[in-house]
From TrEMBL:
Reaction catalyzed: a myo-inositol phosphate + H2O = myo-inositol + phosphate
Protein name stated in the entry: Inositol-1-monophosphatase
Tree of life domain: Bacteria
Keywords annotated in UniProt: Hydrolase, Magnesium, Metal-binding
CC cofactor: Mg(2+)
Record has Magnesium as a keyword: yes
Protein's UniProt keywords contain DNA-binding: no
Similarity-based family: Belongs to the inositol monophosphatase superfamily.
InterPro entries per UniProt: IMPase, Inositol_monoP_metal-BS, Inositol_monophosphatase-like, Inositol_monophosphatase_CS
Disordered: annotated span: 28-47
GO molecular function: hydrolase activity
EC number: 3.1.3.25
Amino acid sequence: MSPHESSDPATLRAVAEQVAAEAAEHLRGLPAPHDDGVTTKSSPTDVVTASDASVERFVRDRLVQLRPGEPVYGEEGAGDAAAARWVVDPIDGTVNYLYGLPWYGISIAAVVDGEGVAGAVSEPASGRLWSAGRGLGATLDGRPLRAAATTELGQALVGTGFAYRAERRARQARMVAAMLPEVRDVRRAGAASLDLCAVAAGWLDGYLEHGCNWWDWAAGALIATEAGAVVHVAGSPGVRGPVDGDALGADVTLAAAPGVAAELAALARRSGAGTV
């Protein structure tokens, strides 16, 4: 394989789609979540299941078969972020998965020099498959995606998420409470990758969350960008979009329809995003 072929977005996108779809099938064949072994990581509410580990092993094994020699950086198995070609979240939305809620996904992104060039997010519960390649657009089950045409912040439906640490959740809650009167409404679904995909589809007009890791947004941010959304990710390798990130916070992820992106960022700043 030539160096050009190895980093071609269309080729990497096809691999991401294939492995994400296969991993979803693998997850559907595992024991039900309530039978799963459960441990915790950063806090008692930050759970990891046996299925998370099983899916990541499956994805790593398939990438070794399909793309030998390419380093993988994953939520459960870690790796060298600086050298990564693949960034993997085996189950984004593990708490949803554990409780039997269907809003969880498997996120696989391909990066070149730390920048996302292709990615896919599969939804095991629904069978949906989101994907994008840099310069190639974004799709849901093969259908092109486009971010919403919303231009009034007061009509914007905004997604968000909360940290695992109680003290930070309290600060996030204060920020959201300040923002809520200025937008249509707020949703908290529990899976960052799928929230970003929802912005890509126009199901959300915006999404703002602090504390996401690279594996949470690596594929979803590219999907939202390729669908025409404005995307800003701070404090992580990869995406930096045309939004002034000052005072939004060192680890903020923001994606929004172009017509409300600047206003949403300004509202977040006024609401204390920089102190979250």
